[in-house]
Amino acid sequence: MRVFVTGAYGQLGQELQETLAHHTLRAVDVDSFDITDRAAAIKAIAEFRPDTVIHTAAFTNVDACERDPELAHRVNALGTENIALACKEIDAAMVYISTDYVFDGTKGEPYVETDTPNPLGVYARTKHAGEVAVRSTLQRYYIARTAWLYGRGANFVKIILQRAAEGKPMFGVTDEVGSPTYAKDLAQALTRLIESVAHRRDAVAQDGLRPHPRYGTYHLVNEGYCSRYEWICEILRLAGYKQEVTPLTKAEFQDRFPSPTQRPGNSALKNYAAATHLGIRLRPWQEALQDFICTLR
Predict the structure, then answer these.
(1) In the predicted model, is pLDDT for residue 195 greater than 70?
(2) Is 150 tagged catalytic?
(3) C or N: which end of the chain has fewer Cβ atoms within 10 Å?
(4) pTM of structure
(5) pLDDT exceeding 90 applies to what percent of the chain?
(6) Selecting from 3.40.50.720, 3.30.70.20, 3.30.70.60, 3.90.1300.10, what CATH number does the domain 2-154+180-222+269-282 have?
(7) In this structure, what are the phi and psi dihedrals at residue 138, rounded to the nearest 5 degrees?
(8) Choosing from 96, 101, 111, 123, which is the catalytic residue?
C-alpha cells in the first residue's frame, strides 16, 4: 500500500513512520510541503499517487490560534480542504486527525462519535471546519478524533517532568477532564484502520464483490479518562516523584495563569465505533503512560 503522511515531524507523524514502515511511504512536513498551497499540495500528492493520505499536520497551539485566527483557519480549515481535494483528484482515501476540542465539554460523560460538536475557541472551530471540509469533499474518508496526545517531542508529560526535576511548584486543574493518548498507540490503531480497508480491497479483487469498508468518524484514544490534576499526579507517581500538586478549578487556574483560550470542561472521548465495528481498542491510559515514561529513563 502507498501511504502519504503530512506532519511527519510531529508526535504522531514520527510514530506513523515506524508503524507504516512496511508500506511504500512518503512522509512530509512544513519544510518541504505547504498544505496551504492548494496547487502545490495537489501536485505533490498526485505525483506520489497514494492509496491513502493521513493528514496529521495542523496548527495545534491553542493560545496562538486565538492570537492569529486567520493563520489557524488557513492551516486547519483551508489546508485540510486542500488535502481532501488532492485525495479526490486521485481517488485516494483520507484520514484526518481531529480533536476532542470539537465538543464544548458540557455533556457530563464521554462523547461518542454521533454526538453533535459545538467548538468553543478558534482552534476548535478551525479543526471542526476541517471535518466539514473532508465530509463535504470525499466519500472515502476517516475522521479520527483524539485527545491530550503525547509522545516524541515536546508535550505535556515532558513539561510536567521537567518542572518536577527543577523543583517548581505544580498545579493541576480538577474540572478539566479528557483522555490522555500515547501517540504510539494511536499510530498503531490508525495503521490497523487503513490496513483493514486494504485487506477488504484484496478480497474484493478476488471474488468480484463491491467493497464496503467502514468509512466515517472514529474516536481513537487510550481507554478511560481523568482530570488534568489526576493526570499530573499519575505522571509524577510513575516517574518516582513525591512532589505535591495543588488542585485548582479552571477559574482559579485562569486567575493565576491567564489564557485567551476557552477550553472544554469534560471532553473525554469514548472509543465506541472503532471498538464495536472494527475491533480496534486502545489500552488504558495509565498503562500507556507507564510505558512512555519508561522510554524516558
Answers:
(1) yes
(2) no
(3) C
(4) 0.93
(5) 91
(6) 3.40.50.720
(7) -120, 160
(8) 123
